[in-house]
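ugh ok fine here u go
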Amino acid sequence: MKHPLLAPFIIVVTFLWLPILILIIISFSSGRVTEWPPPSFTTNWYIEMVKNKRVFTAIETSFLIATATSIFTCILGLCTAYSLTQMRLKYRQYIYSIIYLPMVISPVIIGISLIIFYHIIHLPLGRLSVIIAHMIRSFPFVALILITSMSGVKKSLIEAALDLGATEFSAFRKIVMPIIAPGVIASLLISFTISFDDISTTYFVIGGGHVTVQTYIMEQIQFVVTPEMNALTASILVFSFIIVTGISILQRKRS
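structure:
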């Protein structure tokens, strides 16, 4: 007997994934305008994308920002997760609420708030302002993963190491880190993905002279979606899918 919810599930999944599949197919279209069905197929637009220096500059900027964001956010998340799970803190539930608050706040509101705050403290808009904004956006997700990972570490292991003469840092490095390693890698990947794909917050705090992949795409598609943009967006989709798949594998390994 078929499950009664199977058909609605298939419909929803198809509705979600069909546009992405169509975009990937169109990215190989030989036509100079976006049309369906494609007249024929070619990889020329991917070659043109690779030759475009502005695309490479935007990708380089996005990679640098996303890498810095993932590293700094992971360090902050590790400190937070260790404090909340291994130490006795008052008002722990309120701290959780504050940590997860950026998850429910609109990225647009975060961007507007940050640009006002940057003006008050005289922080120039650029890569640093974007990294801080992306850290705020990705921190709740990183903290959630690392708190869950850290909750599986028994305090008795750390206490035994301390009793045997290990320092707190040595106990953390040799006992805690090997246990939570899959969660750490997953948090790095998800933070990188959030930063690399962000447009709403980046638009407000990027300033002049810097362009990320997402802001470059938004700039280019204001008037028409070119085949080169189809190739670029399809490449980003595949790249993001690979990272998300890696996160899922690491989460299963951690479990």
